[in-house]
């Protein structure tokens, strides 16, 4: 699948794992996949990484990846993510993890600070849209 992106640039003073805009040639897309918000639950339904936003970010991304694989996709197919966090000050730590999982062209991204989640120990939730 061919993706064209407009990089975000350096306005945040750090490397980030998202693009300002992304375009996908729909003639090359077999399906679109929408993934609900993923919290850092492991395969047993237990929240992992209590108090650790990096660990929770990694588990959220792994959960997105698992859902994509079941639907015939991969993280390379992600074109948009929405990230909900309890503290926007965790942005640098979150992007350190995201940069290990997402490759250029990076998906677009929206970050929203929220008061809380369904599990009070959750620090982050990530949903995604993929074009396979």
Radius of gyration: 14 Å
Number of strands: 6
The CA-CA distance between the termini, in Å, is 7 Å
The helix content, as a percent range, equals 10-25%
For the record, what CATH class applies? Alpha Beta
Which second-level CATH architecture applies? Answer: 2-Layer Sandwich
Question: Which structural class fits the helix and strand makeup?
Answer: alpha+beta
Biggest beta-sheet profile: 4 strands, mixed
Query: What sequence of helices (H) and strands (E) makes up the elements?
Result: EEEHEHEE
Total DSSP helices: 2
Oligomer: single chain
The overall number of domains is 1
The CATH topology annotation reads as: 60s Ribosomal Protein L30, Chain: A
The poorly predicted ranges are none
Strand content: 25-35%
Order of neighbouring strands in the sheet with most strands:
3-6-4-5
- Shape descriptor reads globular
Which superfamily, in CATH terms, is the homologous superfamily?
Answer: RutC-like
Report the average pLDDT across residues.
Answer: 92
State the main characteristics.
132 residues, alpha+beta, 60s Ribosomal Protein L30, Chain: A, four-stranded mixed sheet, two-stranded antiparallel ribbon, 2 helices, 22% helix
TL;DR?
By secondary structure, this protein is α+β, with helices and mostly antiparallel strands. The protein is 22% helix and 30% strand.
């Amino acid at each position: 699948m061919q993706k064209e992106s407009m990089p975000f640039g350096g306005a945040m003073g750090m490397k980030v794992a998202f693009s300002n805009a992304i375009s996908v040639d729909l003639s090359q897309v077999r399906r679109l996949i929408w993934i609900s918000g993923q919290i850092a639950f492991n395969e047993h339904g237990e929240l992992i990484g209590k108090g650790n936003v990096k660990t929770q970010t990694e588990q959220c991304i792994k959960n997105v990846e698992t859902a994509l694989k079941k639907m015939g996709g991969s993280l390379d197919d992600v074109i948009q993510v929405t990230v909900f966090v309890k503290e926007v000050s965790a942005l640098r730590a979150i992007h350190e993890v995201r940069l290990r999982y997402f490759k250029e062209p990076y998906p677009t991204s929206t970050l929203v600070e929220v008061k809380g989640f369904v599990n009070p120990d959750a620090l982050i939730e990530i949903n995604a849209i993929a074009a396979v």
